[in-house]
Amino acid sequence: MRWRGVAGKEEPRIEPWGCPELGGVTRTTGRRRRWRRTENGERSQGSRGHGPRKKVPSALLPAGPGMAENRRSGPQATALIYDEDMTRVRLLWDDPECAIEGPERLTATYARLCHRGLAQRCVRLPAREATEEELGLVHSPEYVAVVKGTQTMSTEELRTLAQQYDAVYFHPSTFPCARMAVGATLQLVDAVLTGAVGNGMALVRPPGHHSQRDAANGFCVFNNVAIAAEHAKRRHGLQRVLIVDWDIHHGQGTQGVFENDPSVLYFSWHRYEHQSFWPRLRESDYDVVGQGPGRGFTVNVPWNKVGMKNADYVSVFLHVLLPLAIEFDPELVLVSAGFDSGIGDPEGQMQATPECFAHLTLLLLPLARGRLCAVLEGGYHLQCLAECVCLTLQTLLGDPVPALSGDPAPCLSSLESIQNVRAAHAPHWASLRHEDTGPILTPSTWCGDGGPPLLGAQSVGTTERRGTLLDKLLSCPPPPPHTGIGLAVPDSTSSLNLPPALLQEEGVIVSKEEAEMWSRLDSASTQDQALAALGKLLALLDKILTGQVRAGIAVSPAVSAAMAVALRKGLTGGAQRLLCVAVGELDIPEDLRDNGRILLLNIGGKEQSEAAASRTHICLGGHEATEPGTFLLALTSLILPVAYSFRPDLVLIVLGPDCGLRNLDVELLTRLLQGPVAGQMLLLLQNPDLPLVEALAWALEGRALPSTLGPFLSASPKQALAITRLCRQRRLDWPMLQVSVT
Ligand code: Q9C
Ligand code: ZN
Description:
There is one protein chain. This protein is of the alpha/beta class. 34% of the residues lie in helices and 12% in strands. α8 (310-328) runs antiparallel to α18 (628-646) and α15 (528-545) packs parallel to α16 (559-572). It is globular, with a radius of gyration of 26 Å. α17 links the parallel β13 and β14 (598-603). The structure holds N-{4-[(3-aminopropyl)amino]butyl}acetamide and zinc ion. Zinc ion is lined by residues 247-249, 338, 340, 377-378.
């Protein structure tokens, strides 16, 4: 084998560098353009997300010795913003409700980021205090003046003022800290939108999403994320911003700011328990969807039970958020990243483990060409908070996500919420329109007469289990990721623009007899060219199976035969659960069809009779299945749920000749399937289409910006129906396919 470049560690770079200046920023004038729904128009291919990059303005380059050579600045870089000044604000009196929001939330988190070496891999952006004009993007001058006045107040005065609001405290540093929380968020958004970095995270205090135009609320003073969204629209001219609020409380402040606004899609899930959990608002329920022109652009997923797990969270992303977000086609994703939704948090009482946040992040990264800004909101279990932030940042940096633990089945209560929110939004979104299921009006967790939840109370046993699981989790940090990518391609492809740490497989010699044994008398596979390809494929797959490389791409002139070889090699090489996503017309050998260890997902192949179907053979046939709109629907509603349910230890993606998928769809499939497989993946292509090999190498490597998804195209009603029926048929075998309880 020969390695291109070195897969070594990056130079740690911890000094902050110059403040990004806004260059070429456009101001929107006149009427705000409404978000468009494209039904049929031409899809733009858009710019590729890899290869030569837009030049970074020289003012943005890191300063100081040794810094310029760091590869990480520019659109592939991840920014981190943290400033000790935001640890100044703290509770000065006794108030059990507010005591959990303290400075150690930031210090513990930052310490762990440094300890893991993650902070050092980021571009450090300085925070700054937002101007009063910027605060005015969301807040009234009167309210800003009230908060400004706290700087000179006595503790007694601060306490009296705080009583005017719900779950709020003030401190003489509140005004500068809250301004800095906003300013830090704006710095991050500016850096991402100018291309100085690709994505990033801001560790801020106080949090923002409960804050309203005229009021502090729930530890929040100024609404950091809402101001950033307004800023992105007005100062950068963006027309579509997605806000994903995964904090466990409803960001009613953010919802209020954008309820009439179709240019901001606001998604929030929250502990609700039929309106009995703080802030106990009717407007947090699933049927509240926005008003006037903003109808359909507010998405609320109420959790009516505590103890929600990884499968519940990922299901909501796959079946609610992603279809809508893909259809919305945002230009920027802002995450109200609260981690009180993580296991162990005293507020949330949920059970999502830290790696779940890696998966949520991975699922969002294909949107907006990866322009994602995560901004800290809540999170009150210090260890859990710190760990969750690590996994989020790790994913932003492009590290492979760890496997998702736990039973891959959503619970009854979360399914009810999914069914209800999908029903509430079906009138507003083409990607949900084919659903014929209405809302469920008598949820399992509610006895209907205003009494307490039936299943909501947590048993002692559950609490104990949670404690043990959490302890285990926090005592053993995730193993260091393997980042090697292998390539088994004809020698003619050496001029590609490929990621630096890449293994070019030279292959092993395969005799005709051996080839026949692997591919069972397939004559196409015994040609010289095919033998060479087979030798490379076997050597590469061997390295994947033995953990020497994490993923790879192989090209073969006889892809059906190569697929059979790869499957057999996978089985003999120790893969316990092998997911094969085969796109296009491919011959699948009989003996591999109902092997219990292989799950075969054939998209766009020959139509298959239902009788031929089995638990481990799922077929969405016909060439329409690979058309863009249909494929995206199949990806979120069928392929990913099946993959997450199966939990493969090896994924094989096989593209048949002229399989019909656009390169960017293959790239998206590749990126997203890295979630359920947690890394080990082999791509098998018939045609060494060079731009595709290049795009996939970057997608596997994890750092490059994703290609643009382009304007939304909806699936044909016939195809949408076929997918819906298939998902319904198979949902008992693969529980993450479920979208309703009826
Ligand atoms: N036991 C954020 O997470 N207290 N704010 C609720 C319920 C207020 C949370 C009391 C929680 C505010 C940003
Ligand atoms: Zn919260």
